[in-house]
Structures are given as structure tokens and as C-alpha cells.
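Notebook, student rotation project (T.W.).
Task set for the rotation: take a protein with a known small-molecule partner, predict the structure of the complex, and write up what can be learned from the model alone. Partner molecule chosen: S-adenosylmethionine. Sequence and SMILES entered below by T.W., checked by me.
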Amino acid sequence: MTQPFEQIPPLNAALADHLAWWGLRRFESDAAYFQWQCDTLSSHDLNDLNRLAEAKRAPGGTGAETAFYDVAANSHILPVLYSQRYEYYDKVGPIVAERIGEARTILDFGCGIGLLTTFYARQFPGCSFVGVDRSAASLTVARERAKALRLSNLRFDCLDLEQTPLDDVYDLIVCTQALMQSERDPGLPSLDWRTFERARDPMVQSSFEQRTGVGGRLDRLCAGLNASGRMLVFEKTRQLARRVPFQRALAARGLRLLEVPIPVRYRLVEEVADDGPLFHLTNRVPLALPESVPVWDEAPEHLTDEELHHCRGEGARFAWGRLPQRQVLKEASWDSPALGSLRAEWGWSGGALGYLYVTAGDRFTGLVVGRLGSGRRLECEIGRQIEAIGENPAALEAWLESAWPSSVTGDHPSLTPLYENHTASAQTVWLSLADRRTLQTSTFDEAPELQMHVELGETPGLMYLYGANTFDQRQLVVMEPQRGELLEQYYHELRTGSKLERT
Ligand SMILES: C[S@@+](CC[C@H](N)C(=O)[O-])C[C@H]1O[C@@H](n2cnc3c(N)ncnc32)[C@H](O)[C@@H]1O
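Predicted structure of the complex:
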């Protein structure tokens, strides 16, 4: 069903041409983008858009949402506003297009100005596409553009799915950022701060589906799906607290995963967007599915190497110098054309940490710290790099830059912790700390449903601060005992509720 990977480059090239035809431009820097925005849009335009954007995010902002998309469809605003989402189209468009597969009738729900719908219709002239949206002004643009492209396999219907059901059925329904009304809904909290698990309470689930509008929209979309139909769904559900009830809403309507949810990472010019994943679903009965289909996963997303803490420059030198009970396992040195003589050392510190330290005189210093078991992983990593570098010295600088991007340079070297983790994986690292001993601890409700736990403790040779809450935020900071006062200060900041917030 999914077309081969080799087809992606031509698809990307076609999409780049398509976006340029729509007048979209790709920007790498906020400064350049906002300059263009200032040159093109009046302050009245900007005020209008900002006001409506804010109002559409508020609960019950349906009217403001449609008004926002109506204004955004103005010919002088459209290219500027939609260029901000260039990378979004660039990432989502090909993923959807590669999965059109054998579908012949395709609905794009919430198609907006039809920017991607017209792309799909151009790529698949043998398929018939319908775009629906409730923003009349967006659809006027969509129809004009489809006409200019001479697309005879595409139609646009203006309807609000909340008011009017679909009057046809489709092989495939595409729904990208159009299902979930309330962008700021925090979702469903976990049972308590120790776990990422959620209760299964039908009332709570129903309240989520109503608040976000997901329930009603999904019911109507599912009614418009052929037997053995498929859906491609992409929403702002990266946070586990939103993803779990969203997945449950999909599963409750008999939708099953056809493949592991696809992570989609993109930037709004320079800002990293926190969206996805993209779900590829079917309403086929389980007996008609291959045995290997994935099951719903309610665990937090686990990114490769997120347990490892990287720092470079002065901060790295400072932290390495303070790693207590440092035990060097191995050392290596070699020459690099650009950096001269390089030295790497890896080993253990205290009873809990594994580390890798790389220096090239005063030209480069980098430190990676992980839990004890990661010492072995780091050793493998550096071993692999040394082998690769033996054959290709230029690979070394590239590897150093990718492992320690300039952004990992901390604010002030003396504040650089030995280890720091702000992802869900901090929980695994915290649990792995040997002979943990709690010095101070506090569990309290910061807000209804927002339970928070803060803990200051020690593990042989090291001190740590751990924070966790029911909206899946985790934070672990490890320092040597000499900086215990600093950790204690952080503990009180968390205790008074200022640092970990529900997002
Ligand atoms: C964020 S835009 C996404 C546009 C497009 N799908 C994309 O991926 O770029 C959301 C669109 O969904 C439309 N929409 C939201 N709720 C809708 C509803 N109940 N009925 C019809 N259209 C809806 C909005 O008018 C808007 O054009």
C-alpha cells in the first residue's frame, strides 16, 4: 500500500514547485521572515490576525477560528502567513501522498485554502478528491487555484461538519490539523506523579472529546468512510496527556493502526513545532488485518539518546573536573586536520553516571553524561567514530558538531550540572540511581489534577533533584555534594511551584 521510499525525492521536488506556485517562500531565519511580514502586511492586518489567532485558541473559539481563516485567505496575506508553515507542508504533504495507495475517492477534511489538496490532486490524476471546510473565503481561493491548475478531479464543498454530516463515503479520509478544536486543552492527567498511566473513565473521556470537538467530528468522519477505508490523521497531540485520550477516541470508533504512528518534526521558521504523530488508520475488522499491525501505545515517546546529557566548552570542562570518584575505563587520542590533537576518555563517576569527555586543546571540549549503563554505549559510540575517522578524518569534525551542537553551551559554566534531563526518560534514570536516599521530599497539588512531586536526595558520591508531575513532566539534575546548596535552592523553587508547569 505504501509506495517505496525511493519515490520521496521526486515527490519533494514536485511539492517544492507546487508551494512556489502558491507564492510560498522558505525562510531559515525569523529575522528575514518577520522583515517580509512587516514589509507586506499593514499593522491593521497584523493586529487583526493576532486578535483572531488568540481568540481561536480560547475554549469555544469556533467563530473566531473561521474568521481567522477567512482573513488569512486574503491574497496579500496568504503567501506571508502560509510561508511560516512551509516546512509543515514540506513534511506532511509527502507522507500523505505516499499513502494514497489504492484509494480512489479521497476526502480532505478541513482542507483550508486547498494548498495540499491541490498537490494531492495534481499527483494522482486518476483519483477523485473532495476538500471540505467551513471557511468560505478559504474555499473561494481553493476553487480559483484548482481552476488555474485545470484540475478536473477535485471539488471543494463548504460545510461545517459540526452542523452538517458528509453526504458521501470515501476510501481515504485525510485530516491534518482540523480535528482538535482546542489547542490549549491540557488533556488527561496520569494517575499520579509516579506513572504515565491514565485511568479509563468514560465520563472524563467524553468530556475531553466534547471540549476539543474531537468526538462529534470523528463520528461524522467515520460515517463517511467506506468499509475497509483508511484515515490519515495528524493533530497537535505530541504531549502524552493529549495523545492518550485522542488515541482512545480513535480506538473507540473501531479505528486500528496500520503502521506505527509516524513522528513528524518541523519548524515554523526557527521555532520547533510540537505536533504529531501522524496516525495511519483503518476501520477494517481485525480478522482482515495482517498479524503484524501495531497496537496502541500509551507510553511516552522515547527519542534515541534523550537520556544522555551533552555540554560543551567551559561548562563541559567545569563539570568533568567535578565528576566525583571518576574512574577512567579507556582513553584514546588521534590527530584531526582541523582541530589538531584530540583526546577522548570515558568511564564512570560516583555510583550512578557514565561519561565521555573529548578535548582538542582549547579548540574543543565536550562532555556526555548518562546513567551508569550508558558508559558502555558511549564506549561503543566513540569506538565506531574512531573507526570511521580512521578512514575519513573530516568525519570527526562533523560528528563533534552533531553530537555537541553550539546550542548545548550552558549559560554560566559554574551552573552546569553533571547530569540533567528534562524528558520523560528522566524517570528511568532516576529509578536506576543505585542506593537512592531521600533527604527532603514533598508531594502536593499545584492545581486541580496537577499533582507535583519534588525530591532532593543522594546516591553514592552524588546529589540529585527530581521533579515529576501528573502532566508527564520530569526533571532530574545531578551534581556533586559540594554544590548541594544550589540543588537545595532549586528544590525550594520547585516546592513553591514556579518551575514545572503544565504546558
Ligand atoms: C489548521 S487548518 C488546517 C488546514 C489543512 N488541513 C492543513 O493541513 O494545512 C484547520 C482547518 O480546518 C477547518 N475546520 C475546522 N473545523 C471544521 C469543521 N467543523 N468543519 C469544517 N471545517 C473545519 C478550518 O476552517 C481550517 O481551515
